[in-house]
Design brief:
Strand order of the largest sheet: 1-2
Strand content: 5-15%
Radius of gyration: 24 Å
Oligomer: single chain
Helix content: 55-70%
Number of helices: 9
Structural class: mainly alpha
Distance between the termini: 59 Å
């Protein structure tokens, strides 16, 4: 623990860092220097730093395990979830399966009425939904993004999704999956053949250009996923941190100490109101990221349509 204090910087509270700041001046807290270690690779020494977002990503993963492993065991044993707590978490999973995965990943000619199961769907039925093979992946993506978003709502914590590097990593996974599902279904060569427009021998150069554009388009789609999630989470938490920062600025400004009480009350009320909006945004962005991932995967699965 480092006991020294410095003027708080809102960016320190939002972005990833090797030093975990706790609003030292504002709340009389401290900063935590996270560990770093050296590794040798091909004769070169590299320093690997443990950062705040790395720790929070592990926290998000552990929370998902703690909540959903017991729930999965109950459902597997045929026990119905009881109480608001368990029904809430199960409801999120069934929503992603019925409203995100199946509409986007099932074959277009699956037929009416096949988008939902009757009953709770606790593993007793085995519906012929092509999408169900990919539901665990989409569940994992949704829950991980959601929990990372929600961690930023806790004071002194942060949202790993406020880092472009973290969201870029998630986008790379989505990029791999949107191609992988098509390759597994059609085979490597047939999958890419589906991307090649059949315009006739005379227009082969045009077909090639369209083929390249299609491939580059998948890169752009994944890039949009990363930027959209990062921008929304970073901007929201940056606004909250700056509003809270007003308390420190006014309290330390010469001649403005009399305004400190009013600014404090206004800042806290503003943060509470915006936090409710950020709570909605946390769920919305997790849904959008998962929905678009499922949509892009469905376009690869059903290229003929």
């Amino acid at each position: 623990m480092a006991g020294h204090h410095h003027a708080p910087n809102p960016v320190d509270e939002v972005q990833d860092t090797n030093v975990w700041h706790f609003f030292e001046e504002l709340f009389g807290g401290v900063s935590w220097q996270l560990p770093a270690f050296d590794i040798s690779l091909f004769g070169t020494t590299h320093t690997v730093k443990i950062t705040k977002f790395m720790v929070l990503e592990l926290v998000a993963a552990l929370l998902i395990i703690v909540i959903y492993v017991p729930l999965a065991r109950r459902i597997r044993a045929g026990e119905l979830p009881k109480g608001r707590f368990w029904n809430f978490f199960e409801g999120m999973l069934t929503f992603i399966r019925d409203e995100v995965a199946r509409p986007n990943l099932d074959a277009p000619d699956h037929g009416p009425g096949h988008g939902h199961d009757h009953g709770h769907g606790h593993g007793h039925e085995k519906p012929a939904h092509e999408a169900d093979r990919f539901v665990p992946f989409l569940w994992t993506v949704f829950l991980f993004v959601l929990f990372c978003n929600l961690l930023g709502m806790i004071p002194m914590m942060g949202s790993p999704t406020a880092s472009i590097w973290m969201t870029a990593g998630l986008a790379v996974i989505s990029f791999v999956m949107l191609h992988a599902v098509g390759m597994f279904k059609y085979g490597f060569f047939r999958y890419f053949a589906n991307l090649w427009p059949r315009l006739g021998p005379a227009l082969i150069p045009v077909s090639f250009m369209i083929f390249v554009i299609e491939l580059f388009g998948t890169v752009i789609k994944s890039g949009v996923l990363a930027v959209r999630l990062f921008a929304n989470m970073f901007a929201g938490h940056m606004v909250l941190a700056n509003i809270l920062f007003f308390i420190y600025v006014v309290g330390n400004a010469v001649g403005l100490s009399l305004l400190w009480g009013g600014v404090t009350v206004a800042s806290v009320l503003g943060v509470v109101a915006l936090s409710l909006l950020e709570l909605f945004v946390a769920f919305l962005q997790a849904y959008i990221f998962t929905f678009l991932t499922a949509l892009f995967m469905g376009m690869s699965l059903h290229a003929e349509h």
